[in-house]
Design goal:
Jelly Rolls; 2 domains; about 5% helix; cilium; mainly beta; single chain
C-alpha cells in the first residue's frame, strides 16, 4: 500500500462580518461564530490529487488540521466537511462570493471546551474516492460548524511559519482498481443430495485478480473450500481445481474464515464447498484490475 500527503493548493477562510473581504494571506483557518450573530466564519480548502495513478484504489483519506485556538463556549460543536459545488479562487473568495456547498456532511469531528491544541483528523475517504474516480467534481471542501453561538476555533493555514502545522490530506491507496462484488450466502445441500455446492462465478480478465473471503457461519467443523477456474459461467461448464482443499473451523473459533485468491489466466473463478450438509457460509468476492 502506498501513501501520499498533499498540501492544499488553496486554503483560506471567509467572514460573514467582513463579507466582501478576502483572507487568503491569513495564517489561520477559522470556523464558527466569533462575537455575535452575523459573525460566522467558514474555511475552504482544495487539494490536487492528480499524482495518484488513475488505476489505483483509495483505501483511506484523512484531512489533517492543527488546532491552535479554541474559544468554544457551548458544550461542544461539530466541525463538518462539505463538498463544494462550484469552483472558486483563493485570492478573490469572500463570504459574498462563496460557492454553494452540499448540505450533507462528508466527515466531521467534535470540538469541546477541553479539546487541546494540536493535530486533529477527519476521515473523508468517501469524498476523496469520488474525487479520484471522477464521480464527484473536485472543487474542494468547506469547513463549517457552531454558527449558533460564540464558539470560534482556529486552525493553521499554509501561511503559518512552521510547515509541520499546515493543513494536509493524507491518502493511502493500492495499485489497481478494486471492485467489490455482491456477497453471497451459501448453504451446503443436505442428504439425500450430495453435500457439495459452488459459488457464483466471478468474471476475470487479462489483468484481474480475484479474491474470495469466506466465512463459516455454522457450528460445523467439517467444511472444506477451494478455488476453481473455468472458461465460461454456464451452469454445466467444467471448472478446474486450483490448489488444495482448505478446512474451516466452526463459527466463533480461530480459522473460521479464509481468503483464497487467483491471478491465474482464466475467464472465470468460483469457490467449491464441501461439507456434511446444512452448513451455511458467506462469501465476499473481490476483483482487482492491475
Amino acid at each position: 500500500m502506498a501513501s501520499i500527503t498533499f498540501l492544499p493548493k488553496m486554503n483560506t477562510y471567509i467572514s460573514e462580518w467582513y463579507d466582501g473581504q478576502n483572507f487568503a494571506h491569513s495564517q489561520a483557518l477559522f470556523v464558527s461564530q466569533y462575537q455575535q450573530p452575523g459573525d460566522d466564519h467558514r474555511s475552504l480548502l482544495q487539494f490536487d490529487l492528480s499524482s495518484i495513478p488513475k488505476t489505483s484504489t483509495i483505501d483511506k483519506a484523512e484531512l489533517q488540521l492543527t488546532l491552535f485556538r479554541n474559544e468554544v463556549t457551548s458544550e461542544k460543536i461539530c466541525v463538518s466537511v462539505h463538498r463544494l459545488l462550484n469552483k472558486w479562487l483563493n485570492y478573490t473568495i469572500s463570504w459574498d462570493t462563496q460557492p454553494p456547498f452540499s448540505p450533507f456532511w462528508d466527515g466531521s469531528m467534535i470540538i469541546d471546551q477541553t479539546t487541546t491544541p494540536g493535530l486533529k483528523t477527519i476521515d473523508i475517504s468517501d469524498l476523496v474516492r469520488g474525487w479520484h474516480e471522477g464521480s464527484i467534481p473536485n472543487n474542494g471542501l468547506l469547513l463549517a460548524g457552531g454558527e449558533d453561538n460564540n464558539d470560534l476555533i482556529g486552525f493553521r493555514s499554509t501561511n503559518y511559519l512552521y510547515s509541520n502545522e499546515w493543513p494536509k490530506l493524507s491518502v493511502k491507496f493500492v495499485d489497481g482498481i478494486l471492485e467489490i462484488k455482491d456477497q453471497e450466502k451459501i448453504m451446503i445441500p443436505a442428504f439425500p443430495d450430495t453435500p457439495i455446492i459452488e459459488s457464483r462465478p466471478v468474471a476475470l480478465g487479462p489483468r484481474k485478480k480475484a479474491t474470495f473471503m469466506i466465512l463459516n457461519t455454522s457450528d460445523s467443523p467439517h467444511i472444506k473450500v477451494k478455488v476453481q477456474l473455468g472458461c465460461d459461467n454456464h451452469p454445466n461448464s467444467r471448472f478446474f481445481d486450483l490448489g488444495p482443499w482448505h478446512c474451516l473451523e466452526p463459527k466463533g473459533y480461530p480459522g473460521e474464515a479464509v481468503a483464497l485468491s487467483s491471478s491465474d489466466a482464466a475467464e472465470y473463478a468460483r469457490v467449491l464447498f464441501w461439507g456434511e450438509g446444512g452448513e451455511t457460509l458467506t462469501v465476499y468476492p473481490r476483483t482487482k484490475e492491475t
